Amino acid sequence: MSEFQRRKEQILKGLLDEEDSSTSAAAANCSSSSNSSSSSSSSSSRSVQHYPNKDKHTHSNNIQTNTQIKTQNKQQTQQQQQKQHKQQQQQQQDTEEETEEKEKEKEKTEKEKEKEREKEKEEKETEKEKEKEREEEKEEEEESIVSHTDLKVEPLIIHVEAATAAAAAALLHAAKEAGLRDSGICCYGRRFIVNIKGSTRMETPIIMHTTNSSSSSSSSSSSSSSSGSSSSSSSSSSGSGSGSGSGSRGEEGEIETDKETEREKDTAANTETKAAAAAATKEEKKEKEKNKKINKKEEVIVSQQQQQQQQQQQQQQQQQQRQQQR
Description:
Layout: H1 3-32, H2 37-152, E1 156-162, H3 165-177, E2 184-188, E3 191-198, E4 209-210, E5 217-218, E6 220-223, H4 242-325
Helix pairs in contact: 1-2, 2-4
Enzyme class: transferase
Keywords: Methyltransferase, S-adenosyl-L-methionine, Transferase, tRNA processing
InterPro entries: tRNA_yW-synthesising (IPR003827), tRNA_yW-synthesising-like_sf (IPR036602)
């Protein structure tokens, strides 16, 4: 219970007590009026004098209570208005803070989007560079294939005639040791012609001498564009004996086996050279990629330094402008 309500209750209780006392007094006056006129006049005058005082007291109390109620109502309204004003101010502050936070978030998102765009551009550039590298690799592989095939084009052919089969075999052995592995022997009766074949890798022509009991034969070099393997054919003359013919045929079988082994060696050597060339091209590509990566890192560092310098210059300019404005 508030003080105001307590006062109200006290005032109401006082009024009820006064009314009870007035009724009791009126009954007493009525009983005493039959005894004497003097006492009735005095009591009536007293009672008449007592009621106006009571009315004045109650009226003043009512006025005080009304004023107190009005003042309390005013205070309450003022307090409510102050609370509403404070709430409005807080709401405005909250809205302003929210707008600022939203703007900051927008700026962050925009910066992140710009970074993502830059990354996408860099990725696209790297992809383009990779495609260029792949094209270059393909071109290099094609060039290397052409170069390897060029080595086998335009073979060097030397025709050497030997007097005997032994001399021809010795000459063929020497040619193979010198690197001319595609050589062979053709027999035309008693004539033994050694077909010495090789590639254009041979820088200087090789001259081989084979001595015989009767005569010596020297090799003469002549180039031709025809390619292919030498074909051996044996024929025995009618005047020659059977023993010489059988010996020449045995030598021809040995020569054919030697040719097969030499061809296998040639294929192995060609594969080795191709593998070595491919490994060399791969190493060159790796070195190129490393150099490109290093160059990219250097470019990034340089760009960062330039950005830092620009930022510093802008900050200095802003500071100077502020000082001038002050």
